[in-house]
Each structure stands twice: as structure tokens, then as C-alpha cells.
Amino acid sequence: MSLYYQPSNKMPIGGVLLFLLGGVLAAAALAFVYIYAIWYIPFVYINFFICLGFGLVLGGVLLLLARAGKLRSPSGVGGLAVLVGLAAVYLEWSVYLTLLFNSETTGTGRDADTSTSFSARLFADVLTHPGAMWNAIVKINATGTWSLKGATASGAFLWFVWVVELVMILGGAYLMAKSQADEPFSELTNEWADEEALAHPVAYAADAAQTRTALETGQFQALAPHVPQAALEPFARLKLHRVANDPACQYLTLENVTPKVDDKGKASESTATVVQHLAISPGTYDDLKQRFGALPAATQATA
Residues 253, 276: contact at Cβ < 8 Å? Predict the structure, then answer.
């Protein structure tokens, strides 16, 4: 028996079809939102964040679809996510070229005004002619359509920007969808494990390797309650994963947490995984839940 959870790599055909169909529909909707946003928002600098949002939202949708379809193969889900991500990029370029081909410019210089409208017929024509689409992209790259600090972006720099855009969209889709397939799943009951972050912090694992070895050898007494002595003190967070009706599907995750406060007083935290999805017995699960499941009464009273 493995010390850690190992996905079964099962990919139900119904789940695969749900993932692909739902993913492409979501990609189409997000492609329209993305292109209209960068078309009408005049600030080039925020396009990076709009693109990042595109990738993350698409990834979030794919994560939910992978969970609903009970897809348990990280590599399989990752591959499907890349396909959906490529479809998203193809769709957003189709929307962009439709708006570009259907645009009209009046006036010159600073008085120039460009207006456009969406044409379903033109969109269908662009969508179904990938060769013509590629030729149009090459021509756009040669001339550019937007400027940065007074210089029109074109050539190698514009290719670089488009590659970054591609990586962000594919990366968001791939990483988030794959993360769901890595989550513990009970083959006995055919359901995902529930995750619970225990309320009581654990002492920070200064030597992550030593702590990992202790937990792997069943030395769970190595986990001690965290008693803060100062503000912004690092600690560890304990998470338990469990399917109630499957004694073999119970796991532990431990992550180090470092709280931070920026110059504006905004709180945040960075995390580093020490142990992820380590198999534990029902008895160990109950013991850890009892030890770290709730804050001490005195802490609750002052919280």
C-alpha cells in the first residue's frame, strides 16, 4: 500500500464528454467577454490581468467539470484541458478577427474613431477557415494594431506577447483542472473525499524533511499545537481528507503558512506544502480531529 494517495487514472466516458462539451461552451463565452474587454478598455497595461482572469476562470470551470465527471487521471485531465485551452484561443482569435474585419474608422489622427459590430455570418466564416485566419494573424503581426508608449507593437515583440497570452490561458486551464484530478477519491463509494482545514494551527515545520519523515513513519505526536508568541508568526495548517464510508480513504495534508502584511496594511499569506495526501488510519484521523479540530476555549473567547 502506498504511503500517499495514488489516483486510479479512471476517465469515465460520460465525464470526458461533459468536460469537453462544457469546457468548449465555457471557452466560447469567455472568449467573447475577453475580446470585448480588451477591445473597449483603452488601457493596454491591464490586458495582462484580463488575460490572466480568462485563464483562471476557464481553469475554474474545468476544475468543476472534472469533479462533476469524476475524472481521476491527472495526465488525462491535463491533456483534455490543453485541448479546451487551445479551443479557447482559437475562439478568441475568431471573435477578434470578426470585430476587426467588421470595423470602420472615421476621421484621422487624434480625431479618428473606430467602431465595430459583431456579425454571426462573418464569425462563422472566420471560424471555419483556419488557413485564412492564420494569414490574417501574420499580416496583423507585420503592421500591429495597438501601441505602447507611442510605438506600435509588431514583429517579434508582438509574437512574444501572443505567446505569453497563449501560455497564460493554457496554463490556467491545465493547472486548475489537473489539481482536481489529483484530489483523493474513493473507488469504493465512487465519490470525492471531503476536505477539512482544522481550526487549531500546528507548530511551524522548520525542518520540512524531518517532519515529513516523522509523519511517514507514523510519528503523529511530532505535530504540536501552535501557541503564538508574536504577531505574524509562521505556523502550519493541517487538512484532513475523508470519505466517511470508506476507511481506506483518509488522508492528511500539512502546509507551512507565513503571514504577511504589506505597506498598506493588507494581510496575506504564503504557503509551502510539507506533506500532501498522506494515507492515515481512521484512528489517526479521529485523534488529529480531536487534537486540532477546535481552538482552545480561551482563544475563542478572545477572538
Answer: yes
Q: Centre a 10 Å sphere on the Cβ of residue 111 and count the other Cβ atoms it contains.
A: 7
Provide the angle, in degrees to the nearest 10, between the axes of the packed helices 74-101 and 120-127. 130
pLDDT for 281-299, tens place per residue?
999 999 999 999 998 765 5
- Contact criterion met (CB below 8 Å) for 198 and 223: no
Task: Estimate to the nearest angstrom the gap between the alpha carbon of 185 and the chain centroid.
Answer: 20
Cα–Cα distance for residue pair 166/92, rounded to 1 Å: 11
pLDDT in tens, 156-207: 889 999 999 999 999 999 999 999 999 999 999 999 999 999 999 999 999 9
CA distances from 172 to 32, 54, 61, 183 (A): 18, 8, 11, 17
Q: 162-187: buried (b, 16+ CB within 10 Å) or exposed (e) per residue?
A: eeebbebbbbbbbbbbbebbbbbbbe
H or E element in which residue 40 lies = helix 13-40
- What single-letter DSSP state applies at residue 193? P
Q: Which amino acid is at 134?
A: W
Predicted TM-score (pTM) of the model is: 0.87
The three-class DSSP label of residue 239 is strand
Q: In 143-225, at which residue ranges do the beta strands (DSSP E only) sit?
A: 147-148, 151-152, 185-186, 191-192, 194-197
Cell of 183: 484530489
Q: Residue 261 corresponds to which cell in the numbers above?
A: 502584511
